[in-house]
Design goal:
mainly alpha
């Protein structure tokens, strides 16, 4: 009987480990949230005429956005690996996916009310919904994620075609010009970052030899604050812009 109980508890251990959180990953996601705050708050200041910044052509802000989006999407891939390395919890996965879909629709509706001519129809949340489905298939591979990820990242730099300018195909990428929208995150090249995140997850978080620093609790108040932001990044993403714009509207 004791042996049977030991075997039963042993079968539960992997599921418990897959559900654990890594403060280092939460902190990394929190840093991405903080950078996003800087970008969007500055964008809102420009919207209200406080600053004069060209977000479309200024190299600093263009590259800053690339860093922010890349950070989020690498972590999306890494999280996909964590969610599937001991077998997929379908209920948890679908709950998260449905929540993402709801928030993506909310972003589209909200942006249409504020920017009807340039509302968000395929922004970062819409992308994450699609990438979470496609990336699920890639979690079974190891090195393919590295090679496919690099190939997708560079693909847009060597191929564009006018056919992808059609609104029904803009979500794929390969356009010859950027669409008129407030946020645009197409599959190419950004799916490549998700695949690279899956590869990094398999490389670093392999259960047998995980770095102890990843599970070390956050220390000072700054790290704890970043970790808190990382744990609640989705709801923070959805709410931060209405809060920013609301505060600026009251002040200005």
């Amino acid at each position: 009987m004791a042996k049977r109980r030991q075997q039963k508890s042993a079968t539960k251990a992997p599921a418990q480990k897959s559900a654990m959180r890594y403060p280092a990953i939460d902190i990394a996601r929190g840093i991405a949230i903080a950078m996003m705050f800087v970008f969007h708050f500055t964008f809102d200041l420009r919207y209200y005429g406080v600053v004069d910044i060209d977000f479309i052509n200024d190299p600093f802000w263009l590259n800053f956005r690339v860093v922010i989006v890349s950070s989020f999407l690498l972590l999306v891939g890494l999280s996909l690996h964590l969610a599937t390395r001991n077998g997929l919890n379908t209920k948890r996965y679908l709950k998260r996916l449905y929540l993402l879909i709801a928030y993506a629709l909310l972003v589209s509706v909200g942006s249409y009310l504020v920017f009807p001519e340039s509302f968000i129809y395929f922004g970062i949340l819409h992308f994450i919904v699609v990438a979470s489905v496609i990336g699920l298939w890639f979690t079974r591979f190891y090195w393919l994620n590295l090679f496919a990820g690099i190939a997708i990242v560079i693909a847009e730099n060597i191929f564009q075609h006018e056919v992808f300018n059609h609104i029904s195909l803009q979500w794929i990428g390969f356009m010859t010009h950027l669409p008129y929208t407030e946020d645009y995150v197409p599959l190419v090249p950004w799916l490549g970052m998700v695949l690279l995140g899956i590869f990094i997850g398999k490389l670093v978080l392999n259960q047998q030899d995980e770095p102890a620093m990843l599970s070390r609790p956050a220390g000072n108040i700054v790290m704890r604050t970043l970790a808190f932001g990382g744990r609640h990044s989705l709801i923070i993403y959805v709410l931060h812009q209405p809060v920013f714009m609301g505060i600026l509207a009251l002040l200005l």
